[in-house]
Amino acid sequence: MSLRHAMLGLLADRPASGYDLMKRFETSLSNVWPATQSQVYGELGKLTKAGLLEVAAQGPRGRKEYAITDEGRAELRRWLTEAGPDPVRRSEVLLRVFFLNHLTPVEATAYLMGEAERAAGQHRALEEVERNVDWGDDPLSVNGRLALEYGMRFMAMREEWARWAVEELGKARR
Amino acid sequence: MSLRHAMLGLLADRPASGYDLMKRFETSLSNVWPATQSQVYGELGKLTKAGLLEVAAQGPRGRKEYAITDEGRAELRRWLTEAGPDPVRRSEVLLRVFFLNHLTPVEATAYLMGEAERAAGQHRALEEVERNVDWGDDPLSVNGRLALEYGMRFMAMREEWARWAVEELGKARR
DNA sequence: AGCCGACATGTCAACAGTGGAATGTAGGGT
DNA sequence: ACCCTACATTCCACTGTTGACATGTCGGCT
Prior knowledge:
Two copies of one chain form a homodimer.
Chain A: H1 3-13, H2 18-26, H3 37-49, E1 53-58, E2 64-68, H4 70-81, H5 92-98, H6 105-132, H7 139-173
Antiparallel strand pairs in A: 1-2
Chain B binds a DNA duplex through residues 1, 3, 17-19, 22, 34-39, 41-42, 45, 59-64.
């Protein structure tokens, strides 16, 4: 149920059409909360009916510009301050690790080395992002920087763990 | 589509009933890939129809004991060795971070401190698990240990990041 | 003998997310 | 004047996940 809050968050900055929102999902939010166009337009309808959004203006090609209402702002704040229950963590990576004993030691090691490589690659990609984004002074990018740092630390951790796990597997074999 | 592979992985060790599988999902796998009973029974049916499982024996109370077939084992191996595309990462935590500018600095700081606390709490919980599990020599627990270590490193990273983010927020305010 | 708790399976409605297709309009460049 | 691209919305079918409900039986304890 976080898509609605993502949309409220985006619209709290400034009004936008569904199309505008899609672009922002594709760029800034894609690594945090991806959404498809069907979802976005569907949710816009629901949120409007629920009174959290309103159609502030109509434009050319049937464009509807949505704006957040006071009620919507209240809901956004509620969600932000509420200490959510620990998010469900599903990890396909860990699921594979759990069943690694069904592979040969060589295959298992190869898998973990691959994990390390993938993590390293994504880490490099994030470093690239860091270099390319122009960090204006707007408050938005402060948050973006926090999220980026999280991603980089996460990838570093994944790589280190995978390399450590390779070692462990080697020890266990002896 | 990983539920099916989780089930194949469990059944590759030994045959089990839906009920047995549920218990294993609730204990060892709950932190990696939770599943509900409706899902498990539904998937058992689908996997059997697809020829990846077979009903190996019938027991008392309508108990059906499922066993993995050769085809199922092949599929499990395929899934384990295939380098999956980078898994979609949705993070409610980061989504909140993105919109932290809609809170007052005090509230935002409180949120991040809360995150640090939650991560620390989960870290302690995992340490507890580590102490309580009896690490037999069976190959299964080797994998379990790898997964556990991942969890602990992850929680440590989350806590450190959150404390760092509090600092950053403080700097930005000045 | 009777009962309770663990064993055991099945079904259903609802929601969230994916991916694709259909449809149409406005505006800028040639 | 024309066309292409970007803008813009809507609908649909399918899979995965959740949670609740319904139903029934075996085995051991009192």
